[in-house]
Amino acid sequence: MIYLAVDLDKTLLKTDVLLELIWSSFSQSLIQLFKTRSFNRAQIKRKLATLSKIEVTSLPYNSEVIQYIQAWKAKGGKVALVTATDQLIADKIAAHLGLFDEVYGSDGQLNLKGEHKARFIIERFGEKNFIYMGDSEADLPVWAVAAKAMTVNASPRLRKKVEQINPNVEHLGSAKRSIKPYLKEIRPHQWVKNSLVFVPMLAAHQFDLPTFWISLLAVVAFNFTASSVYVLNDLLDLQADRAHPRKRHRPFATGDLPLCHGIWMILVLLGLGMAIATTISWSFLGILLTYYGLTTAYSFYLKRRIIIDICTLAGLYTIRIFAGAVATKISLSVWLLAFSIFFFFCLATVKRQAELVDHRHRKQLKASGRSYHIDDLPIISMMAIGAGYVSILVLALYINSPQVQLLYTRPQVLWGICCVLLYWITRTILLTHRGLMHDDPIVYAIKDRQSQICFLICLVLFILGGIL
Questions:
Q1: Strand partners, 149
Q2: Sheet holding 102-106, edge to edge
Q3: Would you call 204 exposed, middle or buried from its count of C-beta atoms within 10 A (0-12, 13-18, 19+)?
Q4: What does the pLDDT look like over 31-49, one tens digit per residue?
Q5: Strand partners, 224
Q6: Which single residue of 143, 208, 297, 451 has CA 20 to 30 Å from 286?
Q7: pLDDT tens for each residue of 65-98
Q8: How many Å apart are CA 265 and CA 269, to the nearest integer?
Q9: What is the per-residue DSSP string for 228-262?
Q10: Model-level pTM?
Q11: Measured CA angle at 446 (ends 443, 452), to 5 deg
Q12: Maximum distance among all alpha carbons in the chain?
């Protein structure tokens, strides 16, 4: 009987299990990864398989391959999963799918890949007595001894190589080349947060071209650096994202982007951000490095620490304003800093509130990857309301301060901004309580029509206040 032997990584799955295990270990604890002291690849895989936790039910499976296997079995054929992935993981995947008659993986000593896999399959099924379905050049030795070679999403170059060593070839799918997953991954819609760098220039009414140009460069530097962090965070949150109703569509979670591309994306984006920062000033570079260090610490550790995570998020917003001041050499007022701290603490708390409401709707008692419980919702809501109202109080006191008389000809008009913010903050927290908030309140504010109207009203009031 001819067996259908199927590879796992990038064939049955759209992802690489070894990289999944590595990022899972990173996410759980950096120490775990360094516990794998062996240089033997099979031993590393076994160690990671025992240390890491990946949910096989949420992994991105290749539906075309699964349909082919189902059709093969419907004709009475036998199917074996033969993979370099550790046997422990392979068994879990096979049990989940229920498609395989036999399952073979690396056993902690032998890495079942390349020549090793070819020899193993010949011993088990016999040369030219099996069909092999794979995806990479490492599978060439297996295809050479197979009765039929099947490629999955192979590049034209690999297809040609396979056709040269085995004339009986079938190609399933094709390697897709698209920039869309990369653009989606760096999240350009999130760059609007970095416009906070312009705040010192606006607050000081310093509207000259050199100041605007420096602020714009600073924004671009923050855009690249922030995108580098988004990539890192998505790699660390693979499991949590796949369990989320919206985040599961992110490119790494769906397998639309190879995990191996994540490293170079992080390095290239970070390098561009830092290179631009050096053209502004060394002080600004120091602020940007501080931002990156804090966001990295948040991704690895701080996001799982109760309250500290909210303070960190609020601090990351405020750092952008501070960075704009450093880049343009504009002094920040105590009023602006105080308003920023409370206002962004409110937004960060709303973000956590939205996550908890979402988990309540999905009947989960604890937020995935966080330290909060559903029972914390009333307190989180009160924190958001309190911080939001205090930020409005700070703004009201600022309008009454002597500094305002120097910057505005009609400062009394600015009281209207307090009223608009009072409405917007209250409505935002109420909608969040009802489960209508996006995962990120900034993204929500950009898309929400009433938030857009509120922003325009504040802008008009700012102008009517009498910019000198």
A1: 132, 169
A2: 102-106, 78-86, 3-6, 130-134, 148-152, 169-172
A3: middle
A4: 555 555 555 777 888 888 8
A5: none
A6: 208
A7: 999 999 999 999 999 999 999 999 999 999 999 9
A8: 6
A9: HHHHHHHHHTHHHHHTSTTGGGSHHHHTSS-THHH
A10: 0.85
A11: 150
A12: 90
